[in-house]
Amino acid sequence: MQFFKTPNIEFVGRGRRAMLLSALLILTGLVSVAVHRGLRLSIDFAGGALVEIKLDQPTPIGDVRSAVTAAGFGGAEVTRYGPPTEYLIKVKAVGNAAEVAEHLKDALSAGLAGSSVEIRRIESVGPKIGAELRTAAFWAVMYSLLGIVIYVSWRFQFRMAIAAIVALVHDVLITLGFFSVVDMEISLAVIAALLTIVGYSLNDTIVVFDRVREDLHTRRRENFDRIVNGALNETLSRTLITSGTTLLVVTSLAILGGEVIRDFALALLVGIFVGTYSSLFIATPVVVEWHRRRAGKDRR
Amino acid sequence: MGKNKWKLLLIFFVLVFSIWALYPSYDFYTKTPEERARMSGEERSKYIERAIKLGLDLQGGMHLVLEVDDSELDESAKKDAVDRAIKILRNRVDQFGVAEPIIQQQGNKRIIIQLPGLQDAERARNLIGQTALLEFRLVRQQEEVVRVLNALDRSLKGVTVEGTVVDSTAAGEEEADNAQVDARAPQDTALAAATPFDSILPTLDAEGVEVPLQQIAADRPFTSYLLSSFDGGVVADERTMASVNALLETPQARRAIPPTSEFLWGHEAQPMQDRGVVRALYLVEKRATLDGSKLIDATTRPDADDPTQLNVGFRLNRQGAIIFSRFTGENIGRRIAIVLDRKVRSAPVVQTKIPGGEGRITGLDTDEEANDLSIVLRAGALPAPVSVIEERSVGPSLGHDSITAGTRAAIVGFIVVMIFMLVYYQAAGVLACGALIFNLVIVLAALAKLHAALTLPGIAGLILTIGMAVDANVLIFERIREELAKAKTVRSAIEAGYDRAFSTILDANVTTLITALVLWQFGTGPIKGFATTLSIGIVASMFTALLCTRVVFDLVTANRQLKKLSI
User: Fold this and answer.
1) For a designed S-S bond to A153, which of A158, A223, B228, B482 qualifies (C-beta 3.0 to 4.6 A apart)?
2) Of the candidates B349, B382, B415, which is a domain's last residue?
3) What is the pLDDT of residues B159-200, one digit of tens each?
4) What contacts B306, CB < 8 A, 6 or more positions away?
5) Which of A151, A213, A261 to mutate to test the interface with B (most CBs of B within 10 A)?
6) How far apart are CA A280 and CA A278, in angstroms?
7) What is the pTM of this model?
8) Are residues B276 and B299 both part of a single domain?
9) In this structure, are residues B441 and B407 in contact, taking their beta carbons and an 8 Å threshold?
């Protein structure tokens, strides 16, 4: 069985149009971030407390909400978490977050009479830790980008390293934009997913660059952009099969993996999709564009 | 052929090692809960040493990050404050009875505590979070209290703080409590002996005209917040606590209170007839005559008057006993405050000199509270207060659900990918599936040997590894197909396929490894678990794809002239 016998799709020629589309997607994300006044940060980064509860009988969300409000947490956010017996309550940090979680637990046990409350999870993060994690997450992304630039420059070309980084930033921006548009929170798990996407998308890009590197030796006479387009087509079936199998398992994780892991799986799902697209339409066209301009300069 | 022999030997070795590393995990996790419960502690710890550890998010438990506030300590004490705190916390946790707790320092002033499988998070938090500094301080007498109150009112004139003034003119007689006070069993008689505050606070001016409340507040800015006084302190409405604290914090108030005295609150609010919920505020000597460092033992024992209630009895060492004996001997008829973490537990009146160095702390609400107090007193006080700055607790039921969901997602993902590989690559697909299973075994074995905990993100990493591990095989197979299309023989196509794919696989995986390692470096607990499984998975997939499948291909094609390859 084989999906593509000898594909001959024009990728490089469509590079500029793809860049326009990407720019549009990124812009949509940025506008959404601006409208929402920044990304929605989870308590991991913003500080605060989170309590996951399980009731022994289905309870309308209104009842849970009023019990939470009666406990003095008017600003708390109550969301259903799977079945109508499970709820997630989030409170913004006020003083000692651990105490808030404790107080909330007592208040719920008292407020929802006739239904026993089981505390499934308590997370509280002090504002100081949240700020530290924000910085750490930022530097983690920066360091991995730096590591990639160094490695790719050494094994390939500096130009390719920069093109790879452009594609990665592109992937991260679009994924973050997606989270903003659907109004989902950026948690530690989402940052982990972003870094995984960075690694994954790079994987794709490297496979293509590797083929370009090889073909540059064997097909010296051809135009640079034809070589690149050829390399993209030669590696196309591998790109799609690997992305396909990874998407299969990630979809399985998103559907079956449970609520706790769903944000993470969703970020991966979007990121892998975008990452595959960017390897085909963004990273290599950037290299071609760069090459073209350099060649033009040399001629003059 | 000689080369393949070594490769086969290596593969065989890795396989045997992995199975050997995984056997304890298999043995442990296939046992029923009853069988596991029957295990002796020694047997259990042997298993836990060797089996794959489950992270707190899967088995349930509590993860705390504490910060030591050493701002009050001098330079020399700062140095080992965290070390001493860890020692004391370990002591407390051990006595609390949690299996395999982890207590370690993080950075400069932080301590990580992990308590797996813990049921009562609130109790653990209280046990860990309190400083447990026990002090004995002399309580000031009534004349002194009145003097300080008058000084405060004079000094605070014109100073306002946010908060409500409770109507202190409302009449209310205290219910006389006929509690017995004997020296060996200190009773909290502070509130019982309280007198109505109206006797201090004049609500009628010199001509007998009633003074409006605002006027009183202006003339007596401090006492207007109080309800009544007793020998050694005053009583305030629970709701005005914050305002009173704010007033006491002002520089004017600091000037008015003599430097040798300070106000400390009672540890608990109590209902007072006609006055609502109130709390006592004691004026005590700033210096502690004796503290918990001289304590050698603390045990729970039933209360003499009410055997259903537990008290905590303590014993002082020789030096402490001598100080305590002299202290009580000199202050017969006066109150001594038993202070725990700057809250007055009780303030009994000394009846006689107490020579034995023994005493009790009464007024504990529950047996658990008494138990925990005896634990923290035995373990000793923390060198500085700690605060919980991060907590992640997962109940056992959520952990169980997470395991079920995670495993199901992994199995389904695994099967779907295998079916795809079989359909797409046929016979070569069988090889890829074998490599995939081997890959999974290696990752799990490595987790067991590295004592890395399997977390929920770790399971996600495992699932992702499945998706990515086929990548190396796909790269090779696609390359072999290309070479076959160039009408090469089967053997040379396989050779060229592996050779050409090698650099691709290496570069692609090294870059992924870079991000995984950065993630590991940055991550806390669960994220680290994800990065660990991902990193191991990448290395393992290179091993299975480049070495294992290659050997099989070589063996199959070595002795036969294959015309066609099922790929």
Assistant:
1) A158
2) B382
3) 766 554 444 433 333 332 332 223 333 334 444 444 444 434
4) none
5) A261
6) 5
7) 0.76
8) no
9) no
